[in-house]
């Protein structure tokens, strides 16, 4: 009889532990889901603000010096990225990698455009060239973020 009692007690204990773990997972999900949603929102905003037409419109000022414009574009991207760096805690590695890749591609496109421009090229022409560039990496990162959001 002691054997059956001990076995029944162990089964109840196992049942209690499983229930406690399930409750803990539910409580954790209730706390982290809003954070994950906020991370997706913030990273999407970063990506949208980093799109070259949006970025150039926000940074460019008529009469701006070429070097000043170049630095301002890069600094703006870097500041936005650093401001949202902690969001990587709440998204998958694939999503975060896509966001980082898009940032790196944007920086590369900006640097290449400025490197190709002649020293006396009007900044307005450089701004137009940047606005015309496609950036599939930003689009891919946005798609990855949307997938992430739909899983939450």
Features of the shown structure:
rod-shaped; 6 helices; mainly alpha; 152 residues
Helix content: over 70%
Query: What is the radius of gyration?
Result: 25 Å
**Strand percentage, roughly?**
under 5%
Q: Count all strands and give the number.
A: 0
Largest sheet: none
Q: Helix/strand/pairing class, anyone?
A: mainly alpha
| Mean pLDDT level | 92
State the helix count.
6
**Tally of individual domains:** 1
Poorly predicted tracts of residues: none
Shape: rod-shaped
Strand/helix succession:
HHHHHH
Distance between the termini: 49 Å
Describe the structure.
The protein is mainly α. The protein has one domain. Helices cover 82% and strands 0% of the residues. The chain has 6 helices and no strands. The chain has helices at 2-50, 52-59, 66-83, 93-116, 123-132, 136-151. The chain is rod-shaped and about 95 Å long. The model has no long low-confidence stretch (mean pLDDT 92).
What topology does this entry show?
Layout: H1 2-50, H2 52-59, H3 66-83, H4 93-116, H5 123-132, H6 136-151
Helix pairs in contact: 1-6, 2-5, 3-4, 4-6
Task: Describe this structure in a few short sentences.
The protein is mainly α.
